[in-house]
Design a protein that fits this description.
By secondary structure, this protein is mainly alpha-helical. The chain has a domain of 70 residues: Cytochrome c-like domain (Cytochrome Bc1 Complex, Chain D, domain 2). Helix content is 52%, strand content 0%. α2 crosses α5.
């Protein structure tokens, strides 16, 4: 009996604990899905719109990146991607939710873009 309890304790302690950052990432990813963003965007692949990695790459180092992307989300945008895609209509996303999503995109590292 003690052996079984010890074995269960060992197995349960081997799981990788979820950090606050991991939980936040999962929360943001679910926001993208709930808001329909993933219908047109993917993390690494181009779909109807550019990938999140491509967006991160374009705005890396841009001082007003968050402000620019927030405006695009709230008001919509056209012709930002050299006519590869049609216009993105304004999105119905709350201000704080939009900021969290944008910050997540901007944390993506272009070198992991493969």
């Amino acid at each position: 009996m003690w052996f079984i309890i010890l074995l269960l304790l060992l197995v349960s302690s081997c799981e990788k604990p979820q950090t606050k950052e991991t939980l936040k990432t999962e929360e943001v990813k679910s926001m993208f899905k709930e808001r329909g963003c993933t219908d047109c965007h993917d993390k690494t692949r181009e779909l109807v719109g550019p990938s999140f990695m491509e967006i991160a790459k374009r705005y890396k180092g841009e001082t007003n990146a968050e402000k620019i992307l927030l405006r695009s989300l709230k008001e919509g945008s056209c012709n930002k991607w050299k006519a590869r895609w049609e216009c993105m209509p304004p999105q119905r996303v709350g201000e704080e939710e939009a900021r969290q999503m944008i910050r997540w995109i901007l944390t993506l590292e272009p070198q992991s873009y493969q």
